[in-house]
Amino acid sequence: MANIDIPSEVPVRYLPRSRNASTLIGALFFVGLAAFVIRLRQDPDSAWISYVSNWLYFTSISIGGVLFAFVTWITKAKWNWSMRRVSQSFAAFLPISFVLLLPMLLFLREDYFPWIEMMATDAIVQEKAAYLNIPFLVARNLVAVLLLFGMALYFVYHAVRPDMGLTRGADGGDPAREAWRERLTQGWMGQEQEEVNSYKRMTTIAPAFVIVYALVMSIIVYDWVMTLEPHWYSTMIGPWFFMGAFWGGIASTALWSLYLRTQDKEFKNHIGLQQRHDIGKLAFAFSVFWTYLFFGQYLVIWYGKLPWEQAWMVRRSDPESWGPYSLLVIVMCFVIPFAGLLGRKPKMKPKLLAFFTSVIVIGLWLERYGMMAPSLWHEGDPIFTIWQPLIGCMFLGLYLGAVRWFLTTFPAMQIWQPMGDPETIEVELAAAE
Amino acid sequence: MSQSGGLLASYEYLDSTVDAIEQLKKAGFKGVKAYSPYPDHHIEHALGYDQSPVRVWTLVGGLTGTATGFAFTTWTSVDWPLVVGGKPIVSIPAYIIIAFELTILFGALATLIGLFILSRLPDLRPAVVYDPEFTAGRYGVYVQAEGGRLDEARNILNGQEPIELREGEGGANV
Amino acid sequence: MSNATKDPIVRGALAHPDVTRLDDVNRDVLKVLATPGKGWWALFSLASLGLVVFFTSWGWQLYRGIGVTGLNAPVGWGVYITTFVFWVGIAHSGTLISAILFLFRAPWRQAIYRAAEAMTVFAVMTAGLFPLIHVGRLWHAYWLIPYPNSRFLWPNFKSPLVWDVFAITTYFTVSATFFYLGTIPDIAAARDRATGLRKKLYQVISMGWRGTDQQWHHFGKAYIFLAALATPLVLSVHSVVSWDFAVSIVPGWHTTIFAPYFVAGAIYSGVAMVITLVVPIRKVFGLEAYLTTKHFDAMAKLCLLTSMIVGYAYMSEFFMAWYSGEEIERTAFWNRLFGTYWWATWIMLTCNMFVPIMLWFKRVRYSIPALFVISIFVNIGMWFERYVIVVTSLHHEYEPFAWGIYRPSLTEMGILLGSFCWFSFWFLLFTRLLPPIAIQELKEVLPPPMRKQKEAHS
C-alpha cells in the first residue's frame, strides 16, 4: 500500500500569466463567434446543432471535472492533492455555460425541436405533451442548471476561501489576486475557524451534489438529445451521458495538470509519478466503463429489434452516412485509450499520458455531437463540416479563458489540505461543535 | 568446514532486517533470501526487485481467451448455420460477451499458473531451516555461503542482533 | 491544518490499544479457529436441519416433476429465478470489496474483505444450484455446456442463458481463485500455530508457503492482476444476468438501464449481507478491535450510494414508461405499482429506497444495531425487487387472455429457505476452518517494528 505524503507546506504557485495565451484565446473566441454568425445566416439549423453540441460538450467536461473534485473529497482521497484545484477550476466555466444556455432556451423553437410540429398530428407525441412543451422545458432547464451550477460554485468557493488566508502576502501584491482575496474573505473568522467551516460545508454538500448531478444531467440529456427523436426513449441515456461527462472531467484534469507541469518546477515535482499513474488508471477505467454503458445500451436495442427503438441505432450505424463516424467515436473513446493506457508506462510518461487523454477529450467531443446531431440530420446533408470545430472555437476560447483565469488568480495547487490528515480535522470538528 | 552452509537469522525489527540484507549484498553474497509476515516494499527494495513477469502470463492468458471466445462461437455458428431470433449467423454483439468472459477466465487462470511457477509453489518438502514465527511477527534473512565466507556472513547477521541464528543447509529448499 | 500530529497507529485502519505488535493479529484472529462454542454449534445444527429441508424439497420436485411448483404459463420464472438473481447479487459485493476497493486503495476494506470474499464464493455456489433446480430435469443440465456431442450440435451462443453459463462459471472460478490466493499466507500462519493433523492439512492447503521475498513479490503482483480482472468481471456477471431479462421484449424487462441497475442493486444487497454477517461474527469472536464502527460507517455509506443508484433506476424506469407514450409500457408499470402484486412493489420501494434514507444520519451509521436492522430490510427489499421484476412482468404481458397469477408452492418456499441454510452451512464452516479476517493485510497497515524508533524512545 503506497503511502501518499502531502507536504505540510504546499508551495504557493499560480499558473503564470501569458499575453500570448490570452491573445490566442481571444482569437479563438472571435473566430468561433464569427463562424457562428456567418453560419446562422447560411444555415441556421446546422449552426444551432453545432452550438448545442458544443455547449453539451464543454458543459459536460466542466461539470464532470467539478464532480471529480467532489468525489475525491467524499472518498477522502489523498493522491490527487496537487490536482484538486485543477478539477475545481473548471467551475469557472459554469457561469459562462449558463449564459450560453439562455439563447438555446430563448431562440430554439419549432425549427429545431421536431416534437413541436409532431404534436399536432402524432398520437404518441401527444401523450407526452405534459413533458414536451416549451414553458416546462425552459423552466426545468433554468431551475436544474442553476441548482447544479450553484452547488458546484458553493463548493469551489469554500475550497478556495481558506487558501486566501494562507496566501496573504505570498503573491507579490498582484492587484487582481488582491481584489479577489478581498471579495472572498468577507466576514473572515480566522484561519483555523475558516478551515473547519469550509470542511464542514463541503462535506455536507458533497453527497447532495452527486444526486443533483445525476438528476440534472439526465434532464439535460433528455431535453437536448433524447427528445430530438420523439419516439425514441432509453433509460440508459442518462447514465451514459453523465458518466461520460465525469470521464471527460477526469481526462481534462489530467491534461491541465500535465500542462501545469510545463509551467513551473513545483508543479513538475508535485504532479508526480503517483498522481500520473493514478489519474491514468482512472482515465483507462472510465474508458472501459464508457464502453460498458455504450454496449449495454446497444445490445439491448440490437437484440430487442423494436422499430421505434432501433431507429436511433440504425441511423447512427448506417454505413452510408453516420456509420463510419460512430466507428471513429468508438475507436477514439475505447480502442485507442484501452490499448494505449493498458500498460504502466504510458500512464506515467507525461507525453504519452497527454497524448492518450487528448484522444479521450477529442473522442468525447465527437461523441457528444454523434449523440444528438444524427437525430436532426436529413438525407443528403453532410455528416460533419468544418463549421462544427469552427463554432466550437467560440466555446473552446471561453472555456480555456475561464480555466486559465481561475488558475492564474487562485493558487493552482490547493494550499489547504485537510485530507492530509482527515482524522485531525474530524477531531477539530467535534471540538468546534 | 570447507563445504557450503546456510544461515538463517530471525529478527524482531524491520530496519535490522533491511540493514542485514543491504550489508550482505554489499559484501557480495549471492542468494540472499528474506522472510516476512507480510509483503514489505523496504525488503523488496533492498533485494533489488524489478517488475514481476506475472504480467506477461496475465496478458497472454487474456488474449488467448479473447481469441478463443470469438473463434469458438464463430466456428460453431458457421459449422451448423441456424438462423435464431432473426439474428445474423455470426452475431458479433452476442459473441463479445462469450469472448469477454473467456478473456477473464483464461487471464485469471494463467495468472495463477504463472504465480505458482514463478514462486515455486507448491513446495511441500519439510523445511530444513525455518522459523514458524515468520508468519506471525518476525522477519528472517537467509544466506548461503561457501565455508570460508560463512563466518563473514555470520558476523553481518549477528551485527543486527537477531533473536535466533540457525544453521542448516537448506539449499533451494528454503 | 498541520500534519505534525500524525500518530502512526491512527493513520491505518486499526486504532486500538490492544493491537500494537504484528503477532497480536495472529493471536486475535487465529483464536477464532480454536474449539467452537455453543453458539456456533447451535447455528450449525440449525443450518444442517435446513439442508435437510432443502434436499427433501428438491428430491420431492425431482421425484414428482416440476409440476409441484407454482410455475405455469404465463409465469414460467418464479421464486427459483428470483432467488438465483438474489444470490448472484449477494456475491457481488464480495468482489467489489476485495477487488475494486483494493484497486482504489480504500484502507477500510482490509478487515472485512475475507468474510466478503468467502460470502462471494458461497453465494455463487448457492446461486449456481438454482438453474439446476429450475430446469427440472437435472440430468439434462449438462446440455448447457458446449461439448462435441454425437451430432455436433452446439449451444446457441446468441441465447442470454448460454451467456449466463459462461458468466457464472467464470465468476465462480475467478472468485474462488482470488479467495484461495488471498488465504494462502494466512493458512500458513494458521499452520505455524497448529499441531497434529490440522498442521498437516494446513501445510497442504497453504502449498508450503513460507513468506519468502520471492513468494511475496509474485504474490503481490498476481493479486493486483487478479483484482484488475475481477473488476470488469463483476460488472459483466450481473449485466449478463440482467440481459437474461432485458434482451427480451417483455414490458418491464426490456429497458436499456438494466445492466448498471442490476450491478448497483447487486452491490447494494451484497454490502447489506456483509453487514448482516459481520455483525454477529464480530460479537461472537470478540473482534471489536478489528471491525470498528469506522468500517461499518464506510459500508453504510456504500449502501447509501448504491441505494441512491437503485432509486435513480426505479424512478427513471417509471418516468420512461410514462414518457414512452406506449400503452403497454405504461400499463405494465401501472400494474407494478397498483396491480395484483402491488404489495411486493411497495415492499421493494420501502426497503430499498425509503428505509436507507436513515443512513444519511451519522448517528445511524455509527450504531451497529441500527445498521444490522437496516441491512435486513435491504436484504428483504432486494429479494422482492427481483420478485417484482420476474413475476409482475411475466404475469401481465401483451395479450389480456394470456394474463395469469403465480403463487409459489410449498416446495419452492422450502427450497428458498433451504438455500439460506445451504449458504449458512458453508459460511459457518468457513469461520471455523479459515481465518475470517485477512491477517497479512492487517499487518500491512500496522506500523512496522523499528529498532531505531525503539532506541530513540528509551
Keywords:
heterotrimer, A: 433 residues, mainly alpha, 18 helices, globular, B: 174 residues, alpha+beta, Alpha-Beta Plaits
Describe the structure.
The complex is a heterotrimer of chains A (433), B (174) and C (458). Chain A is an all-alpha fold. Chain A has one domain (19-416). Chain A is 73% helix and 0% strand. In chain A, helix 1 (19-42) packs antiparallel against helix 17, helix 2 (44-74) crosses helix 10 and helix 12 (273-304) packs parallel to helix 16. The longest helix of chain A has 34 residues, at 191-224. The mean pLDDT of chain A is 92. The mean pLDDT of chain B is 85. Chain B is built from 5 helices and 4 strands; from the N terminus they run βαβαααβαβ. Chain B has helices at 14-26, 41-47, 54-79, 92-118, 147-159; strands at residues 5-11, 33-35, 139-145, 164-167. With 174 residues, chain B is α+β, with helices and mostly antiparallel strands. In chain B, helix 1 (14-26) runs parallel beside helix 2 (41-47) and helix 3 runs antiparallel to helix 4 (92-118). Chain C is mainly α and 458 residues long. Chain C has helices at 8-11, 22-30, 38-64, 79-103, 113-134, 160-193, 196-205, 213-246, 258-285, 293-324, 327-338, 342-354, 362-365, 368-394, 410-433, 439-445, 451-457. The radius of gyration of chain C is 24 Å and the shape is globular. Classes of the chains: A mainly alpha (433), B alpha+beta (174), C mainly alpha (458). Chains in contact: A-B, A-C, B-C. Chains B and C meet through helix 1, strand 2, helix 2, helix 3 and helix 4 of B and helix 2, helix 6, helix 8, helix 16 and helix 17 of C.
